[in-house]
Every structure is written in structure tokens, then in C-alpha cells.
Amino acid sequence: MKQIFKKFIIAVLTYEARILLNRTKPFIITVTGSVGKTSTKDAIFSVLKTHCHVRKSEKSFNSEIGVPLSILGLPNAWDNPISWLKNLIDGAIIAFFSKKYPEVLVLETGVDRPGDMANLASWLRPNIVVMTRLPDVPVHVEYFSSPEAVVAEKLELLNALKPDGVFIYNHDDEKLQSVANEVRQNCIGYSRYTPTQFKASADTVLYRDDVAIGSTFTLTHLDEHVQIKIMGSVGVQNTYTYGAAAAVASQFDIPLSEVATTLQNHQVPPGRMSLLSGLKNTLIIDDTYNSSPTAAESALLSLKELKGAKRKIAILGDMLELGRFSSREHEKIGELVPQCADVLITLGVRSRKTAQTALEHGMSEKVIFQYDDVARAGRELQSYLSPGDVVLVKASQSIRAERIVEEIMSEPERAKELLVRQDVSWKKR
């Protein structure tokens, strides 16, 4: 019965969203890929919001129900059937009678199961498609026959791109390079390592009193160079996020210098390599929004590069939805850990492979700790911390590793502002 109700809700909201788009004809930007979708969507919104009336997907509304909700401007009703019925009524009013509607939509789009993107592409016609990255082992591969099937599903969105549309892509991704060579639309690349239209370089961590406070890099387009500063976050992923935003901005004739100024004031979403003050004068790198093999590797390498830490502590939780690839991918992370961290704390059954492999690759068993209970890990970590420690926390969202961050952050009263999954519906889970 619940599944029938869900299908009914999705069908009606999708119909209403289609009616609204046909009536108002906004300029549509879609963001997809296997990493960095929400951060990229938010950065694009930041550079456009002072130039046009623009709406973005809230949080990570990227599913078959999240996209229609974003188009209609309606909230997620979660498990409340009365609120869902209210959404249907409100959606009908908006679809048929609303007079003011955004000129531009920035929509995050994702896939959980086969057919998700194809269904979306059957009715959504974007003007710009932004693709972030298509790693060898993407999230949600558990539900597909192969990693290639996940990639093929995501690429369905390109089939919906308007004939005069623009494909903006991560040029460091070889799969996306190949796609760009084949599509008929205008293609714009952004990168950190390979030459393309929007190229980041010289990314550097910013320090204050030997404590990381952010990062900076140079962004180049043609013969123009700008310095972009990112406060409160570290990691090479920011160069891709901001490069993509600059590429989109170019389609609205926004100067690169203005993009740099705007993004300097942009706030990176919580749980994406965010720098937080911890107990006992420690530093937390909060990367708890989600995890995948590619993202976990990137986070560890960022931890490795940080200077001035007394100890580097990696808290790594299970990476979910990897199917038959799960064991080997957790082992690969375990191989990397001894090069990047002094202490390893794992969360969950799957991450025991990470701990075992780290031990096999030279890490002492004295600095490897394994937990299944996140709350217990957070409590015991409080007494283990010492001044000068840098703590990376990363796990798939179902592990709820943000609870560890809340236990060890110096301002837990600001958890609702600084951490992911702090609304009432998540707190009840």
C-alpha cells in the first residue's frame, strides 16, 4: 500500500511539474555525476543569484520525487500522508495559476535504480547539463549490473539536452572526455590537471597560527587569471566545484573576476570537507555528508597534505551501496590509510576490511580502533583527543557519522547550523 501511494504521489507531482515547465519555460541547468553534485549546484546558484531570478534544488533533492518538488518549490513531507496530499493540492495551484516563476532553475539530478535518469530525461529538457565525475566504482552500483550501467544511466540526461544546449563537464575524467568528443552540443570543460577552457592550478591550504582555515587556487579562462579563496573547507574537490560554477557563469556573460568575488563569500555546504573547531584545540575535517571510494580517497589525500598536525586521525565509516565491489573498495582505502593518517578509527562491519588492510600495510594495531556503535565511538574519542590533533570524519550517510562530529566539536550548540542531517525528520532516525 505504501509503494502504491508513493507511485501515485510521484506521478501527480511529475505531471504538475511538467505542466509548470511547459507554461513558464524557465532556463534549466541540471547537475549530475557520482560526486560533488550538491556542492556544484550550490556554487552555481551563488554566482547566478545576483543576475537573475533563480531557484535551486533544496539540500539534495535529486530523485524522481525530489526533482518535481524542486520545480514546484514544495517541501519534502517525509512520512506524513496528510502533508503529501497538501503538496498535491499546492502543486496543482502552482502548476496552473502561479504568475511569478524563476527565470532559471538549477536542479540536482541523481540515480538510485536502473531507469531513474531515463524516466527523468523523458520529460525534462535542460539547457545546460553539468557532469561532475563518473568514477570507476560509483555510488549505487549495488543496484546495477555493472559500473558501466550506472554511467550509461547518468548519460541518459544528455539525450534530453536541448539541440542548442551546452554540456559542461569535468575534463580530468577520461570517461567524460570521451563523451564530450561524441556529443553534438557545445562542450565546455573544467579541470585541475588537464588543459581545458576553465583550468584550476596552484591550489594551496591557507593557515592561521598553523591551523588550516581554508584554501586558495588560481582559475584560468583563456588569457584571464583570478585567485579564488575558499574559507572553511579544504580539498581538491573545491577546484572542480568552483570551476564548474565559473563555466556556467560564462554562459550568462558573468565576468570571471565577478565569479571569483562572489565565490569568496560562498559557503560550502555542511559535511563537505568542512573545517570545524574541535574539543581540546583540535581541528575537525567534517566530510560526513556521504562517502564513496573516490571521495574517501580524495579526503585522505587532503588529510595527508595538511601541515602542523600533532596526530592525523582518520575516522572512516562504511561505504554503502557498492554491492560486490564493497570488500575490495574498503581494502583499497585501507591500503591508503597508513600513508595519510597516524590513527585509524572505523565505523561499521564493512570498514573492518579497511582496518584489517591498514594493519597488513604497516599500521600498528595500537592505533587502530573499530566500532559498530557510532555513539560509543564519539564518547570515547573525547578522552582520546589531544591538542593539535586533526580529525577527518567520513562515512556514508546511513552511518550517521555527523553524530561523532557533534560529540567532539567545540560548539555543539551550533550543530544545527554547521552539521548535516540536523532537521527533525533525520534526528528521529
UniProtKB/TrEMBL annotation:
Native organism is Candidatus Kaiserbacteria bacterium RIFOXYD1_FULL_42_15
> What InterPro entries does its record include?
Mur-like_cat_sf, Mur_ligase_C, Mur_ligase_C_dom_sf, Mur_ligase_cen, MurCDEF_CellWall_CoF430Synth
Designated name of the protein: UDP-N-acetylmuramoyl-tripeptide--D-alanyl-D-alanine ligase
**Which UniProt keyword terms apply here?**
ATP-binding, Ligase, Nucleotide-binding
Q: Which residues form the Mur ligase central domain?
A: 31-76, 94-240
- Which GO MF terms are attached to this record? acid-amino acid ligase activity; ATP binding
Q: Which residues form the Mur ligase C-terminal domain?
A: 271-396
Query: What lineage does the source organism belong to?
Result: Bacteria, Candidatus Kaiseribacteriota
Q: Which domain of life is it from?
A: Bacteria
Does the UniProt entry include the keyword Cell inner membrane? Answer: no
